[in-house]
Write a structure and sequence with these properties.
The complex is a heterotetramer, with 2 copies of chain A (153 residues) and 2 copies of chain B (76 residues). Chain A contains 3 helices and 11 strands. With 153 residues, chain A is of the alpha+beta class. In chain A, a hairpin with a 2-residue loop joins strand 9 and strand 10. In chain A, helix 2 runs antiparallel to helix 3. The longest helix of chain A has 18 residues. The radius of gyration of chain A is 17 Å and the shape is elongated. Chain B has 76 residues and is an alpha+beta fold. Chain B has a 5-stranded mixed β-sheet with strand order 2-1-5-3-4. In chain B, strand 3 and strand 4 form a beta hairpin. The longest helix of chain B is centred in the middle third of the chain and has 9 residues. The radius of gyration of chain B is 12 Å and the shape is globular. Classes of the chains: A alpha+beta (153), B alpha+beta (76). Strand 2 of chain A pairs antiparallel with strand 2 of chain C.
């Protein structure tokens, strides 16, 4: 099981591939893997986005992700999982989050992966601040918290 | 008793406070801490946590607790 | 868009990674990728499985997969997708199927990926014959079609 | 008219037929083709296709059609 918040860019498919070489995940034991990758888009709410600051509450975030993972493991009888989330300065096309779940069966893998993503969005203590050509704005619940400030300098 | 209070994201910027320690001799709730520091009504969508667990505004605090205030989260 | 039935073993994560380098899938345009990989288990219905023959109806399978893909692209507004399915002799831990979907949003990527898997299971003309220590058996709808024949020789 | 008939998986093994051409002078349905070749009642879960599209047992055939019979599919 991997739960990590990482400041550096990562290649999600290499992470999944590497994880499957983990001897804890016995070859032949799992029939299904579901993976989700959320990637930063260069466009949001009608504006081009140049970069994003991903702030988080160190300590609480890890604690919440561990609770989410434990719930999903039990409920969906997962064999293993990855939750890997970026923090810091993100550029368009950078992966932001990877969730991968392994299970004996398809429904469990899909169900676990989707549920982790839902809980992650509602419980994990991350906040996004976008950099536009016109300034910066906080993105709250998919909508900007307030209008962007006037251009500085 | 001594409480650590933290603010995140847009709330941190609005209040201009990242982290603060408060000391009181009487029993305190999260709401007391908010009024004491923020000196304004809480925003409608305010979230709070005690020791990394989500908490209600009326929760009572104990010595050494870390209280955090933040806007709705937005990960993933 | 990749739709393929392949006789050789493949590395699903490398396929997804390679596909994202496709210039048709503009960097920064998609916010979400969901992927599902079905893998051969070494155990099914209480028996160890040594190998599996994956028979298919060449021509009809490709046609059905193309229809499934077109439906999912439109319904879920997908930006791109992969359906890659093995045929021939499969060994435990070999990937059998990869479905990957790219979209602007999470729900569309998940919904498209799951729906393709559902249709694929119900419409794509594949049949599985397992090799056990005691002989071979057809697997029909997750249950064996008939009891395995007595050991030969 | 001339019809190509194909069998797959366990059905192919049971009947011992992979592919067969049939020639008829009169109108034919899929059911006619099945009775003609298989000489047994169709299994309950039998599936059939004409020219790579799923089809009902009563569908009428045209010259040059490819008809396929197979058990429930099991991909993925």
């Amino acid at each position: 099981m991997l739960i990590e918040i990482r400041k550096q860019a990562f290649d999600p498919w290499r992470e999944v591939s590497y994880h499957e070489k983990n001897p804890q995940l016995h070859p032949g034991s799992y029939g299904a893997c579901a993976a989700f990758v959320g990637t930063m888009r260069d466009f949001n709410l009608g504006e081009n986005v140049q970069a994003m600051q991903l702030e988080h509450y160190a300590g609480m975030t890890e604690h919440q992700l561990a609770k989410i993972a434990d719930q999903a493991l039990i409920k969906h009888r997962l064999l293993d999982l990855i939750i890997l989330h970026r923090a810091g300065t993100i550029r368009p096309n950078d992966p932001i989050v990877l969730v991968a779940t392994w299970s004996a069966h398809r429904d469990a893998a899909f169900g676990g992966c989707q549920e982790i993503m839902e809980y992650l969005k509602s419980k994990a203590t991350f906040w996004k601040k976008e950099t536009l050509a016109s300034g910066q704005r906080w993105v709250e619940q998919g909508t900007p918290g307030r209008p962007p400030p006037r251009r500085q300098g | 008793m001594s409480i650590t209070v933290r603010f995140f994201a847009s709330l941190r910027e609005e209040l201009g406070i990242n982290q603060k320690s408060v000391h009181h001799t009487c029993a305190l709730t999260i709401e007391d801490v908010w009024r004491d520091i923020a000196r304004r009504p809480p925003p409608k969508n305010l979230l709070c946590a005690v020791n990394h667990e989500y908490a209600g505004f009326g929760q009572r605090l104990e010595d050494g607790d870390e209280v955090a205030f933040f806007p709705p989260v937005n990960g993933g």
